[in-house]
Design brief:
The structure is a single chain. The chain is mostly helical. The protein is 77% helix and 0% strand. It is built from ten helices and no strands. The protein has helices at residues 6-22, 29-36, 40-46, 50-75, 80-93, 95-103, 105-110, 115-129, 135-154, 160-174. Helix 5 runs parallel beside helix 9 and helix 9 packs antiparallel against helix 10. This is Helix-turn-helix domain-containing protein. Keywords: DNA-binding, Transcription, Transcription regulation. InterPro entries: Homeodomain-like_sf, HTH-type_TetR-like_transc_reg, HTH_TetR.
């Protein structure tokens, strides 16, 4: 995927911030243009609609998450620690988008942008626990994966190496490993 121009990237950054703070439905394109100090037609030049802007914000995260999972599924034999560390890295790298995704789940679902992300925990659970895990193993995996995601959002100012070590250790504990 090509890197967006500086103006386009500024629009994406401001839109992400406003969408996260005020919600997608309560943020108008005029709000975004005003924050940027540009005209609404200039914004439309880069993004023809709010839906397209939302898709442009979320798509790189979805593509990155899908790429991570496909690589792990193709590999098939990744140690659990590597899977957990990789999922932490993904969530930390995309924490601003994950916050928006969680806050705006109904809106993103209406745009067809949520199903893939919702399936990731199921796919990761299979990689961690095997193809037919029992309820306890599935519950532990979901707790571990959800906890990793939450830690990335809850402690944005923590040193990343310390946070990763603590989060991975907690996830492995939740998994009983």
């Amino acid at each position: 995927m090509p890197k967006p121009s500086d103006t386009k990237q500024r629009i994406l950054d401001v839109a992400r911030d406003l969408f996260t703070t005020h919600g997608v439905q309560r943020t108008s394109l005029q709000d975004i243009a005003d924050r940027l100090g540009i005209t609404k037609p200039a914004l439309y030049y880069h993004f023809p609609s709010r839906d397209e802007l939302v898709r442009s914000i979320v798509a790189p995260m979805l593509d990155d998450g899908e790429r991570f999972l496909l690589e792990q599924e193709a590999r098939g034999d990744a140690p659990v620690r590597e899977l957990i560390e990789g999922f932490f890295d993904f969530n930390y790298r995309h924490r601003a988008d994950v916050i928006m995704l969680l806050a705006e789940m109904p809106t993103l679902a209406d745009l067809g942008l949520i199903d893939k992300a919702l399936g990731w925990r199921t796919r990761l659970t299979r990689l961690i626990c095997g193809p037919d895990p029992g309820l306890e193993a599935q519950a532990r995996a979901i707790l571990a994966l959800g906890g990793l995601q939450d830690v990335c959002m809850q402690f944005p100012d923590a040193p990343v190496d310390e946070l990763k070590a603590a989060a991975v250790a907690g996830a492995l504990d939740a998994l009983g490993r």
